[in-house]
Amino acid sequence: MGECKSGSNESLKEFYIPDYILVPGSNVETLSYTPECPVIIFINAKSGGQLGGDLLTTYRGLLNKTQVFDLGEEAPDKVLHKLYGNLEKLKPHDGLAVEIEKRLRIIVAGGDGTASWLLGVVCDLKLAKPPPIATVPLGTGNNLPFSFGWGKKNPGTDSQSVKSFLDQVKKAKEMKIDSWHIIMRMKAPKEGPCDPIAPLELPHSLHAFHRVSNTDALSMEGCHTYRGGFWNYFSMGMDAQVSYAFHSERKLHPERFKNQIVNQSTYAKLGCTQGWFCASLFHPSSRNIAQLTKVKIMKKQGHWEDLHIPHSIRSIICLNLPSFSGGFNPWGTPNEKKKQDRGLTAPFVDDGLLEVVGFRDAWHGLVLVAPKGHGTRLAQAHRIRFEFLKGKTDHTYMRIDGEPWKQPLPDDNDTVVVEISHLGQVNMLAIENCRSKSINDPPNSHHDEEEEEDSNGDSEEDYEERRKFGAADTFRLADDVDFTHLS
Asked: How far apart are CA 43 and CA 114, in angstroms?
């Protein structure tokens, strides 16, 4: 194979990993150099229309094809288990294996759900030094890549674009971000299926979302308990309902979703038909959050308190990163008065706090395109709990890191509980001066994003004035949408 598959391109040898590191039992290959930035690449070939497949072909043409994986063919957990198992065998007598493990970086190309899937797999490995992850935007929202400076538009797939991206990966800084544990518990049904969610509807970001074992401390007699994790956001209500409609439509007609602009236009149309722009009598699950659930938050360890949710709020977002709905920051940067009066802070990605934000409808979402615009700030918390009692609807919609599901709610005196708590941290790769900020950054860098003006940005009265601004991608009405006939 030589020293690099590309042979003539000296710069690519910095990213090269030989076969014997990746494939146990292969002939040992002696290199005259140590790769500065060895990479493993995971690509969702189905993301971004044809772009995912094109990107797969380009990476395999430039690097060792055995270090480039199609997620549709090989699961990342199996790939990484095999890789790290092989590294453990090689390290005692192979200096190159030691250096590759120390310098290894992961690239994942796909939507937010794909990126979260990889983050979960790396977390589950529980490595002493987990490899940091760079994300290539191939989805519709691309909130994770945008948060760390990788952009939100689908990238070029030609050789030069890929080489440029690899060079950025080599220069990128490592950045820790919080990871969040989510647990859902419900009473075990007396008859019928025991799983509340059809297996095919489980998002990738809930790869670890399963019924816990009887020996797990979280297990409770007479109940089914499920668990998982996320890194960007958990949302519930109308935004998740529209997202679920979009994903369902894409699953039924994948041929219609080959272009990012077309995808966003379809998303906007579904926002109309699902009642996101105006409450619909035909969609009872779009009722306000206060009708669906009681919400408790924990600001101080061991002390739960009720969180008041205004009756106008139909969507609630628990946000870890400063990017939602294609790159907007629903929390914004509170001014000094709000910091003092309400104890609010800027959103840091490693402070152990979730920002809890509410939206009334898609018109309310229009404020995000305004300078310093934000949603209704409800709280910042270390933990948050949703308690669903028997209500006026038999289901709601939830979404984690871009991937939605339809969640059944109690039809008797049972309670469904969803609780989110801080779990740990993972390593991301970030471009300098990206929008994600660390609590450990130098103090002057925390002021890169201007604070909002001292105004009543959270008030109901402010809504009518601010709706005159343009629209975020998720909320935007496409030019050809006629919604006069919609309820």
From this structure: 9
Residue in the structure block whose two tokens are 């939206």:
359
| Mean pLDDT value across residues 267-291 | 55
Tell me how far the alpha carbon of residue 255 is from its chain's centroid.
25
User: For 254-395, where are the alpha helices, taking DSSP H only?
Assistant: 260-273, 289-292, 336-342, 362-365
AA identity, residue 389:
L
CB count within 10 Å of CB 301 equals 7
The pTM is what?
Answer: 0.77
Phi, psi of 169 (to 5 degrees): -60, -40
In the chain, pLDDT over 70 holds for what percent of residues? 68
Cα–Cα distance, 55 to 157 (Å, whole number) = 5
For residues 1 and 19, the answer to whether their CB atoms sit within 8 Å is: yes
Cα gap 47→402, rounded to integer Å: 13
Q: Is the pLDDT of residue 73 over 70?
A: yes
What residues contact residue 289 under an 8 Å CB cut-off, 6+ apart? 236, 237, 295, 309, 313, 314, 315, 316, 358
